[in-house]
């Protein structure tokens, strides 16, 4: 008996020039966008050069931005940035954002209009799944696969099974998309969606802004997902109308068929959710903040590809306004445009008055690179996506994942704090 297709299967079928595909099929698909940054792209460049390949498949379909170690923190990172810069200029990459224009990749690409529904997008970064918020198939790949994509413009995939997450109900006070995704990962575990497409649907998803949706798809990988995806609606279209350049405003929208097959369906009553915190050392160690209050925090970090967008900074500023932080607090707008908008709206003044550090766009602290490393025994409340052992510094430091509201409220108190107390 023939079944309908999921949104993911339809997109992969289009990319593979097939009428239909099903979970488990091995396909070769055309790549619409390849994202490159300073950590995984230089090894890919080296592989290509060793094979005598100096060109790229399409200079228009590659987007390049340094972000993990920019501005360069040491000689090794400077060499990475130089290698990326030399390669991008040599190949005349159209969409290259060097230092000064560079931003956290998964915030920069949507903002600059590089993400469109129905397309296949890959990047040398595990959180490339973020772009699925726009009804695209988007997945992280390693440097070897990235090298193949840069040369050939196509890649093989095993069509993933899909899990449907039906999210209904009205979110309560101080409950946000970060709390939703922590609750999801806590229920299914860090391997609960291993090599599966996580399809998010329901009235709660429909009520979210694009920024909030990107927070959810960003963390699909933390459940082992191959991708995360949300169907296109009016909210998506309004965002795309604003950011897509002329000539790129036409795109193909796919929706899952009513009889599409899913490996399983998970339903959530989101009106029952509370502010959440992922305790060390797994994103699946979710607990209600109210049940864990009082743990001292040495540092608060507000930023990253998960929660460094303008909506996140506005939320943090709401809880920091007129107060002083008791934990050292680092705020990192994810792109230059977000930095400027935060400045124009007076948010940076609020952070300054609260005695926070405001940095240039970078991934640095999130991956334990620089600009916020933790010492032995230190604890950090963070709006990032990972809290593995040693993720932000010393192996005996601890990272607690939460929303910008919980992070800001905790920074003010100097300890893990339920943001509802600061309304």
Automatic annotation (TrEMBL):
The gene is dmdA. SUPFAM superfamilies: Aconitase iron-sulfur domain. It comes from Sedimentisphaera salicampi. GO terms for molecular function: 3-isopropylmalate dehydratase activity; 4 iron, 4 sulfur cluster binding; metal ion binding. Binds 1 [4Fe-4S] cluster per subunit. Residues 10-291, 293-414 form the Aconitase/3-isopropylmalate dehydratase large subunit alpha/beta/alpha domain. Its cofactor is [4Fe-4S] cluster. This is 3-isopropylmalate dehydratase large subunit. Pfam families: Aconitase. Its EC number is 4.2.1.33. The keyword Glycosyltransferase does not apply.
């Amino acid at each position: 008996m023939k079944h309908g297709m999921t949104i993911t299967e339809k997109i992969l079928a289009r990319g593979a020039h097939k009428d239909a595909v099903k979970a488990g099929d091995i396909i070769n698909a055309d790549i619409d966008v390849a994202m490159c940054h300073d950590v995984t792209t230089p090894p890919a460049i080296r592989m290509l050069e060793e094979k005598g390949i100096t060109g790229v498949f399409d200079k228009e379909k590659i987007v390049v931005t340094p972000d993990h170690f920019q501005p360069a923190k040491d000689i090794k990172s400077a060499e990475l940035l130089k290698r990326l810069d030399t390669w991008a200029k040599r190949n005349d990459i159209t969409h290259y954002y060097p230092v000064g224009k560079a931003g956290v990749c998964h915030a920069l690409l949507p903002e600059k209009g590089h993400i469109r529904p129905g397309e296949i997008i890959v990047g040398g970064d595990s959180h490339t799944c973020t772009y699925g918020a726009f009804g695209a198939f988007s997945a992280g790949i390693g440097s070897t696969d990235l090298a193949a994509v840069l040369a050939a413009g196509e890649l093989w995939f095993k069509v993933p099974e899909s899990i449907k997450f039906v999210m209904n109900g009205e979110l309560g006070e101080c409950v946000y998309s970060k709390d939703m995704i922590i609750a999801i990962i806590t229920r299914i575990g860090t391997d609960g969606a291993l090599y599966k497409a996580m399809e998010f649907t329901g009235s709660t998803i429909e009520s979210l802004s694009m920024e909030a949706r990107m927070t959810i798809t960003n963390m699909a990988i933390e459940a082992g997902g191959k991708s995360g995806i949300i169907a296109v609606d009016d909210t998506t279209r309004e965002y795309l109308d604003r950011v897509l350049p002329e000539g790129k405003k036409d795109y193909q929208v796919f929706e899952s068929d009513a009889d599409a097959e899913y490996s399983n369906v998970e339903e959530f009553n989101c009106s029952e959710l509370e502010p959440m915190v992922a305790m060390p050392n797994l994103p699946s160690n979710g607990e209600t903040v109210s049940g864990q209050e009082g743990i001292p925090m040495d540092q608060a970090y507000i930023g990253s590809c998960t929660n460094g967008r303008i909506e996140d900074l506005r939320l943090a500023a709401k809880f920091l306004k007129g107060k002083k932080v008791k934990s050292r607090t680092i705020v990192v707008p994810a792109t230059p445009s977000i930095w400027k908008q935060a400045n124009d709206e007076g948010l940076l003044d609020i952070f300054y008055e609260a005695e926070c550090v405001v940095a240039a766009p970078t991934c640095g602290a999130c991956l334990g690179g620089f600009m916020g490393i933790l010492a032995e025994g230190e604890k950090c409340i963070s709006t990032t996506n990972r809290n593995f052992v040693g993720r932000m510094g010393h192996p005996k430091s601890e990272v607690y994942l939460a929303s910008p509201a919980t992070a800001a409220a905790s920074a003010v108190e100097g300890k893990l704090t339920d943001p509802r107390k600061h309304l």
